[in-house]
Amino acid sequence: MSWASLLLTAWSSRSPSLLLVVMVSRDVGLRVGLEGVQTSMCSRTGSPMEESNLGQDGDIVLGLFFPLMSMYAMEFALEEINSNPSLLPGVRLSHRILDSCGRHPWALLGAFSLVGGDRSTCNTMPVLRSSHVWLNQTWQRTAMILSRTLGPLFIPMISYLASCPCLSDRQQYPNFFRTIPSDINQAKVMARLAIRFNWTWIGAVLSDNDYGRLAIQVFEEEIQESGVCVAFSEILSRETIEEDAIRVANTIQHSTARVILIFTWYTDVAELFLQLAKINVTDRQFLASEAWSTATDLLHNVALSKVASGVLGVAIRSADIPGFEKFLRRLHPSDRPSDFFLREFWEKEFGCTSIPLCSGRETLEGVKKRFTDTSHLRAAYNAYLAVYVAAHGLHSLLSCPDEGSDPTDNSSTCSSPYNITPKELLEHLNKVNFTTPHGEKFFFEGADIPAVYDLVNWKSTPAGSLGMFTIGRLVGSDLHLNESAIQWSTGSTQVPISVCSKSCPPGTRRANRKGEPVCCFDCIPCTDGEVNNETGSHQCRRCPIEFWSNLGHTACIPRKVDFLSFNETMGIVLTTAAVSGAVVTAAVFIVFLHYRHTPVVRANNSELSFLLLLSLKLCFLCALVFIGRPSVWSCRLQQAAFGISFVLCVSCLQVKTIVVLAAFRSARPGAGGLMKWFGTGQQRGSVCFYTCIQVIICTIWLSLSPPVPYRDLGFQGSKVNLECAMSSVVGFAVVLGYIGFLACLCLLLAFLARKLPDNFNEAKFITFSMLIFCAVWVAFVPAYISSPGKYSVAVEIFAILASSYGLLLCIFAPKCFIILLKPERNTKKHLMGR
């Protein structure tokens, strides 16, 4: 392993010293970016290396130790800057390489030696009195140690790989800068992808350090209000990686989550994938952090290809540095005798060592290796930018302000190259804002830069192996993603589904399960009158008052207007009963008309009998007025017809009863003049009088507050009841009360006359008919009040028909029986009981 330090040192024969240190904060493992070359020097020396002191003299010296590609990218940046007459004119940058062997104390020792001018670390490094800027590559812990150590000295640090969000804290690390986005941004990208693809049930595998813990913390904050849940969160520790990988693989196998988020180092992922391959778990979709999304060791491992296929990851943005490939191909060990990295690569590539000697004609022209592939530079491009940041900070510090600038602005004053302090340089780095040679705008937001990431996808290639392809990019807050280019873990372009519970379809709502995450729920159908036309909704919406839910509870539809119609079964039955009653009454009327001269018909005033039959026919027919769609006139007519018809009917019965009583009373001695008060004229007058009272009552009621058609919306159902509403209950009560009064009076009189001597005493039949009449209408009141909608109308029609049939059968059935079937009894002698 190698922790490295890049030192940018201002050096000239006239200047005391100017130091710029660039340190690398990334553990590069046993390999340096050079294919097949092992950094074995540390194991040979066991101390900070002197053999690797590679360098070139100049005015500003850079001390370097990084992964090989980053080192050469910085050298190329220095070459560009030195050849640029408008950037640091009159100052030449150079570099030195120093190895810390991946140990924090040695990195700190190297820092102190460079700041303090210790020669023991590097025998070719010039003596330095003070340091002004450090550019570093170390992991976050080393970066934090160095930043806190150099902070009191106001020495700026610029990292191109330290991405810990903690380093954004300007209170703790005021001297820290970086050319790589904070890990907060890639965690946010992961959350946006989960939301975009509707992955609501995601597993997480994390490294046992701040990298993993802070990432999942940010991820959970981003998904908090979006309905995405973390199914499990497992830790991988390097000290127990094999046991942890087995445990996590079993967790993934038994979890219902199909999308797994992994924030850890690529070596941990390799062990995890190996365990997943052993138990044949190959259908999971993995989301990769930048720590392993571009790991070629994983990508080209055939044993893991089934597990790794379809990986979707966030990667350090890639870029091409024009001219860099030509720079690499010009490299030759003969020109760089102290560059042991290049020497080892050369010996491996061309198979020549010092014995036998290389011919000297070897060249990198035409060599196709990762070393010479500059099409997708990632960390190397960040290192390239770090050098330019340092150069522009120095340039701003050494440049004099334009005329007219604010004289109170300390950063606008120019410094002398003989008197530069790190604090001044720190102020200028905070305000760095420049355009790179390739047209990219660069500036700091505190310690950070605006987020820029590539989105990569591991897809199968025609050769059968896996390849890494860029399918999108995040720039600031803008996410550009070519979804059609993604190959998922299933091998298709169909987005995988990862949910605890499937989204509730329209017509249902979500009901969270007690004690489980919000992503786990049941789908409950909307109740009647409520709808939901959305997928995954938490609640149903009640329909407006004049609407009701359809069968699927997905839309509100207008309520059907409901009333007692002639087309429905109940309406047909009642209509049939009413018409039948009217027909039977008409038939009886015809029979009586045909036998009008017989004693049975003539007995007790045949005129009243015909009038009673006419009123009964009206009672049957008035029931038809209640059936059908209510209108203004039908609502008025039905109650008036009902009230008047029944008063006419009961009045006829009452007069008949009075006539019977008067006839038998007049037969007593001294009562012969009684019948003169109950002649035919008086009987007609009495019926008209009783009926006129009801006519007056109905006229007043219908004039002041008549019944009106009303849409009853209070009843919750799919139908709106259209009925005749009683605007005045008092008026309806008076109409019924008057009918009831006459009926009770008639019942009382008939009851008194029931035992009068006569073979055909009509009073007892009137008694039975009035008993039925009163019983029906007494039962009608509670039934009418408790019946909803059209059923209240049906109850009233039933009461009308029942009472009418009772009167018709009780009074006229016996007479028709004698007239039609027992004509021998239809004589005056028989009726008088002789």
TrEMBL record:
Domain annotation G-protein coupled receptors family 3 profile: ranges: 570-834
SUPFAM superfamilies xrefs: Periplasmic binding protein-like I
N-terminal signal peptide: 1-19
UniProt subcellular location: Cell membrane
Location (main, coarse): membrane
Membrane-crossing segments per the record: 570-595, 607-628, 640-664, 685-705, 725-753, 765-785, 797-821
Membrane topology, record value: Multi-pass membrane protein
MF terms in GO: G protein-coupled receptor activity
Key words, A-Z: Cell membrane, G-protein coupled receptor, Glycoprotein, Membrane, Receptor, Signal, Transducer, Transmembrane, Transmembrane helix
This protein's GO CC annotations: plasma membrane
Gene3D superfamilies: 3.40.50.2300, GPCR, family 3, nine cysteines domain
PANTHER family for this protein: CALCIUM-SENSING RECEPTOR-RELATED, NOVEL PHERMONE RECEPTOR-RELATED
Family: Belongs to the G-protein coupled receptor 3 family.
Designated name of the protein: Olfactory receptor C family, r1
Originating organism: Gadus morhua
